[in-house]
């Protein structure tokens, strides 16, 4: 967190010129839950996105990638409750969603980003969406971010919504985001749905560069369960309403924008990790002393992805041997005899391993530390100056319960 970046309210509506809304259109059986969301820029915006690398891709990703080939967009529509993946006619449905919302907004259908999330392999009826779009558009508001955030949730237990304010070129700028993600999350860009808005003026090339660079140390360092989803992507719209000189290359303004973007994406990563399916604890692995950046990232991800580490954290068991095990099979170049491991939380910090071997420590103190809601696993590889962080959650009985009957 940079002191020049200040948290504010408003989510995706905090930046100038953005409106949002969310409604229940009838996809979900529970009428109290929103299932259709819209984010709209009052002017055409620069837009960039990154997508899941799963070879099985949802129809909306195919359509969105085509629409964003020119680097511009003006609206994002997303439904929850059905992923529109592995469906006959899924591409046509995604196009119809773009066309219907574009007609209601009086914009080009090529300026619409479309997304879906939910159950894979079930037909998505277009009628509820088409019938709901007029209400969705009529409810667009500067205060609509929370309703939009609710409309993209699936097994999420809480909305994920954030905004910041910062200066670029002497102009006050804002950047906001909403996200969904609780299960089927594993590093391979991007493994959730993330929608970010900003009023910064920036070229399509530099916006894509900023997003694709940032995700390497944020969303690609997040794992809940080791499963890479079929539908997930991160999208940024920048409409230039802040009035700054357009960012067209690297420099001080680009760095300020990157700091703001990273503040939002890290916050969203931590929020998604804390809300993992069935989770009781958010885990962060902080690696230092790596010989290169790749080794640092590889080790951090391996530790937070380990089912045995995750289970130990659920049981508040300081089983540091599982951490070393995860480091050992990560494939990173490390000197095992130089590794040190500590656990840290609001209850304190305790060293449990030095030089790749166990040391005496208080099990009682360790348990107290690991009973907290946020746990940091500190790994010092003792072999260089590079570091990385990764985020995840504990593995609980409820994860199996949730996913044992997710479809039915």
Describe the protein's architecture and organization.
The chain is an alpha+beta fold. The chain has two domains: 6-274, L-amino peptidase D-ALA esterase/amidase (4-Layer Sandwich); 282-404, ArgJ beta chain, C-terminal domain (Ubiquitin-like (UB roll)), CATH 3.10.20. It has helices at residues 59-67, 90-105, 127-138, 145-151, 204-214, 252-274, 293-305, 307-314, 320-328, 363-370, 397-404; strands spanning 6-8, 18-23, 36-51, 72-82, 112-119, 160-168, 171-180, 193-198, 233-238, 282-290, 340-345, 348-354, 357-358, 374-380, 386-393. A hairpin with a 2-residue loop joins strand 12 (348-354) and strand 13. The radius of gyration is 22 Å and the shape is globular. The model has no long low-confidence stretch (mean pLDDT 92).
As a whole number of angstroms, the C-alpha radius of gyration is 22 Å
CATH fold descriptor of the largest domain: L-amino peptidase D-ALA esterase/amidase
Rounded average pLDDT:
92
Q: Tell me the major beta sheet.
A: 9 strands, mixed
β content, as a range? 25-35%
Query: Which residues sit in consecutive blocks of at least 5 with pLDDT less than 50?
Result: none
Please identify which CATH superfamily of the largest domain we are dealing with.
L-amino peptidase D-ALA esterase/amidase
Q: Whole-Å distance between the termini?
A: 42 Å
Helix content: 25-40%
How many strand elements?
15
**Overall 3D geometry?**
globular
The helix/strand class is: alpha+beta
